[in-house]
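Morning. Coffee machine broken again, so started the prediction first thing and wrote up yesterday's gels while waiting. Chain of 229 residues, entered below exactly as on the submission form.
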Amino acid sequence: MRLLAFDSSTDWLSVAVCDGDTWRERGERAATAASERALPLVRELLDEAGFGVRALDGIAFGAGPGSFTGVRIACGVAQGLALGAGLPVLGIATLLALAHDAWRARGVDSVLACLDARMREVYVAAYRHTGAGWVTLVEPSVQKPADVARPEGPWHGCGDGFATYPDLAVQLKLASVDTAAVPSARAIGELAAPRFAAGEGVDAAHAEPLYVRHRVALTTRERDAGMRL
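Came back before lunch.
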């Protein structure tokens, strides 16, 4: 299966192309430049792989939660490329991608994924890996750090929410934590692959970001105080 995957839900832009069992990846800290850098990285990887967009079987993107601008960019790029090539798309939760990366890199199977949501909040979800794949124990949500809880048992934490709020790992009594983890395009592609194979890809027009916070603007007082969405 040939897939294109990317994520721009954080300041880190990640792009990956799969050709069977071979993955090619690129990543860079793009922040607000993600809309300018995404397509050049896609072209670079496709050139390396030796095929074009029309040879793909599907396009997967990091649907969020994350930066409002970032998840809209990822969704928009996926839709644009898929519409032009007549390809199916799939949005994959960025917190699940974090968990998948932790499992692949460290072998941990109980992961509490946490990203900084700004406005003194975090995006958080809990996942457990079984022989049949991932089970969601806590659905993605936005919470105040003090309100975050975890299911019973030992848990591994990952994501920049733990860097922004270092007391959170202690509060949750985590077995380990990776504060530098970011959602990777390869994880998104690996999670999407069996779903594409099962025919779950959707028409580009139906691709949607995953918003768990529906507020998209700050008040003047909040902006003056340095708050960001």
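Helices lie at 34-49, 68-85, 94-106, 161-164, 167-172, 185-197, 220-224. Going to sketch it on the whiteboard this afternoon.
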